[in-house]
Amino acid sequence: MKQLLILTILSFVTIANAQEKTTLTLKEAIKYALENKADAKKAQLKIENSEYQIQEVRSRALPQISANGSLTYNPIIQTTVIDGAAFNAPGTTIQAAFGQKWISTAGVSLTQALFDQSVFTGLKAAKTTREFYQINNQLTEEQVIERVANNYYQVYVLRQKLALAESNLNTTSKVRDIVKGQFDNGLAKKIDLDRMTVNLSNINTQKQQIINAVQLQENALKFYIGMPIDAEINIPQSEFEITPAAFSDTPNVASRSEYLILKKQEELLVLQKKSVIAGYYPTLSLSASYNYIGQGPQMPWFAKPSDGVYWSDFSAIGLNLRVPIFSGFGTRAKVRQADVELRTIQEDIKDTQLGLNLDYKNAKTQIENSIITLQNQKENMRLANEILKNINNNYLQGLASLTDLLDAENASTEAQNNYTAAILDYKLAEIKLIKSKGELRTLLNN
């Protein structure tokens, strides 16, 4: 009963593990990454944070209201020397103390900016910052898509190599069994059997190396999509059909995220320069306050005039004008620094524009060459398989040597590996072409 219980538990664990295996198409992998990868999430958080930055700058244009209060005790009151003539005692000097031992004030103050060029410029910059982070989010998503697609196809190629290694292992095992049968019947030499055994061992080693590489690449893919490393994934074969690439004369560089984000940075630097220039402008603000003060020989709180404590209110309204005259050339230096940064980003924009055009030309050339290579490798694989089939038949009939058979097997394996590598080169080139056209998000529609 105990053994039966253990077997039942193990069966349930096996079924549960099997149910956790996730089938991932490229589209599903990309969607998963955009929803779970930290890079994509952080880009979204930056957009959210830009809204708060706008609110912060907008607050500078709104009234600033604050409450204040104080309680002061004067152990020693300062005295003032005055002329006694004011008190009908000409020719004398009177030393009088003004104030009370205790003073308490409470009030409300308000400040309102009426004209501040830096505030107006800051509002424009904040809105532009939000647009910058929106473009940055788009660029981040494209980078995530590119990384996921590249790793996704690399997993596929390694799995193809693993399937090829297993197929070769089965074929070589059958041939080895035939050679062993011939050796047992005195129709083959021991060296032939040993050579087949060594070849079988080499294929086994290659298979184990590929299994390890598949595991490592799958882990990398799961990392790039934000999936738990322990999760099991399955990639369907139908994802890897070779389709003709679409070419255009020259893509519109102005629609690329890399270009748009630099243009938005240029806008921000223009506004930054205007904000520094605003230091030359005067500022005008309105201030108002209302206060209540209590004074007396004892703590004013809850005291009455009968205790010698008196309360009174006072208020003030002011118009404040500040006109900058000379700042030691500090503002001028800041303006020139902002201008240098602006000219620097403009050079980056020109260079990026050239680089994006270069990316398209190179991607176009690379995929054209990949298609030719893929066609050649496919034909080579067909011929190598046909040769292997013929030599295998000839070997079984005693018309070909074991060396010929081993050479044909190696040639067939190499041709198939070259074909799968050509598929990877083509798919990676296809991603580069799609990226150079600014169409990486179309992979979500496939």
TrEMBL record:
Major localization class: membrane
Coiled coil regions, renumbered to chain: 360-394
Gene3D superfamilies tied to this protein: Outer membrane efflux proteins (OEP)
**Which UniProt keywords are listed?**
Cell outer membrane, Coiled coil, Membrane, Signal, Transmembrane, Transmembrane beta strand, Transport
Query: Where does the UniProt annotation locate this protein?
Result: Cell outer membrane
* Superkingdom of the source species: Bacteria
Extent of the signal sequence: 1-18
Q: Which family does the entry's similarity section mention?
A: Belongs to the outer membrane factor (OMF) (TC 1.B.17) family.
Know the name of this protein? TolC family protein
The organism named in the record is: Flavobacterium zubiriense
Q: What is the lineage of its organism?
A: Bacteria, Pseudomonadati, Bacteroidota, Flavobacteriia, Flavobacteriales
